[in-house]
Specification:
Elements: H1 14-21, H2 25-54, E1 73-79, E2 82-91, E3 94-102
Antiparallel strand pairs: 1-2, 2-3
C-alpha cells in the first residue's frame, strides 16, 4: 500500500494548500513552527484582552473604608425598627458586613 499525503483541513484556503504542496520539507517545517508560535501568540493576546476586561474595576469610591473591598455592595438592615446601611461582600463561603451609616428617612 503506497504512502498517501495528508489531507488538508477543510477550512484552509485552496491557495494556501497549493503553496504548501509546492514547498520543500524544510520550508514546511519552518511554516509549522511559525504557525504554532503565531497561534500561541494570538491565544495569549485574546486571553490577556479578556482578563484585562475582567479587571476593569471601577475606581474605589471615596467613602469606601480601606478594609472593605471594592466589590462590596450597600445593603439595608433593620434593627429594632431602625434602618442602617451596611457594606456587604462575600469572603469565601462567608458574607461579611461593615456598618456604614443610618438610613436617612428623607431619602
Amino acid at each position: 500500500m503506497p504512502y498517501e499525503p495528508p489531507t488538508p483541513p477543510a477550512g484552509l484556503p485552496a491557495k494556501l494548500v497549493d503553496t504548501l504542496n509546492e514547498s520543500p520539507p524544510e520550508q514546511l517545517r519552518d511554516v509549522a513552527r511559525y504557525a504554532e508560535g503565531l497561534a500561541e501568540h494570538r491565544e495569549r493576546e485574546a486571553r490577556l484582552e479578556k482578563e484585562s476586561g475582567e479587571d476593569d474595576i471601577e475606581e474605589r469610591p471615596d467613602n469606601l473604608p480601606d478594609d472593605v473591598p471594592t466589590k462590596a455592595t450597600i445593603t439595608i438592615k433593620e434593627i429594632n425598627d431602625n434602618r442602617y446601611y451596611y457594606w456587604q461582600w462575600r469572603d469565601g463561603d462567608k458574607v461579611r458586613s461593615k456598618y456604614k451609616e443610618p438610613v436617612n428617612p428623607d431619602d
